[in-house]
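Quick start: what a row looks like.
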Amino acid sequence: MTVALITGAGGGLGRAMALRLASDGYAIAALDIDPDSVAETVAEVSQAGGTAAPFVADLRDAQSIEDTFVAVGSRLGPIEVLVNNAAIFPKRPFDSVPLAEYDEVHAVNQRSYWYTSQLAARQMPETGGRIVNIASMTMHGGWSELAAYVATKGAVAALTKALARELGPREIRVNCVSPGAFPTAGEAIHPDPVAYNAFVLENQALARRGTPAELAAVVSFLVGPDSSFVTGQTIEVNGGWFMA
């Protein structure tokens, strides 16, 4: 069974990805810093008839990442699919962001994507592998009070292209998914949920909210055989808010 490692698997989007890839037949290595949320993800996957195991790691810490890769290999086998999804997004005005906070956002949202990709690529078989990085629509137009988050997501899209170019000769495909606004717990950073929901619908071409399962379907395509000639691309999944 092909092993797929998903970071941030305890959150709404990560859980949807775990459920979808498990239904596609992958063994899910579900990674999150929160042991309770990742245990819930694994329980849902198991209840749906899939295979999954929980792994708790702090993506700010290189040793924690290395230890997790060893644990995944011992329990499930080598990683052939990596989905870099974990992210943090503290919200505050740019001129009051402490440098330590920026460093933490960078460590989780960008540096961990680099390092997990490096570790995964080293163990991917000669037949190739697949890496999907999760960026954000905010990288295109900016977003007030989220400068650190936006900067890291732009870096993720650029890293995707660089890795796709370098790893392509080894049949490792690297793509990026750029989500719009999905109704998950992450929207709690917006103080007025009703107003924010109206704001989203006003900006999207589609007059409804997307679901995490719809985003997960795109990830499923990018790690599956139907995208065998697709690499280095950023796929926008935002209901027509930003059109590439």
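That is the whole record. Residues 3-237 form a domain with the Rossmann fold fold (CATH 3.40.50.720). The mean pLDDT is 94.
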